[in-house]
Sequence to fold (179 residues):
Amino acid sequence: MKKSLAMFALLTAMAGSAFAQQAPAKPAAAAAVADAASIDAVIAALYGTISGPAGKPRDWNRLRALFRADGKMIVHGRNKEGVFMTRVLSVDDYIARVTPLFAKEGFFESELARRTEQFGQIAHVFSTYESRHAKEEAKPFQRGINSIQLVNDGRRWWVQSLVWQAETDHNPLPDRYLK
Fold:
């Protein structure tokens, strides 16, 4: 009986810890209060941090501060061989990947439309985007969907993950995501 009670206590403790809030592996950078105050503010800051002319350094600390320390940036799409691939990146992996590109080319991403679903302290945002190399370019070189999952810890909103997929000829953006 004592063994059964001990096993029950152990299993209960293990189950409880699985649902307990896990502390981030490393502390996340402090976000400006305005950047994390609302879902709208976080989304605006996301687009703002990655956009800029060629050679202009981005505020990568601002981007890091939008994400939980264990947050991910995930790109999904076809590779050159036409096979669907998913690449999971930490925020620092993303920064390392795009910094050389942004040094050579301008990149301006803006939101065309948005659908937001929220329940309590979790939210999911489907943000339709378009990308240009210069703000004044008439036609974007790319469009797609950013699927952004956010959590609120009672003090602010955090990006938990951002998954994006670009539009293609075989996978055009549906009208419902353009309104």
In short: The two ends are 63 Å apart (CA to CA). The beta strands are 67-78, 84-90, 108-119, 122-132, 142-152, 157-166.
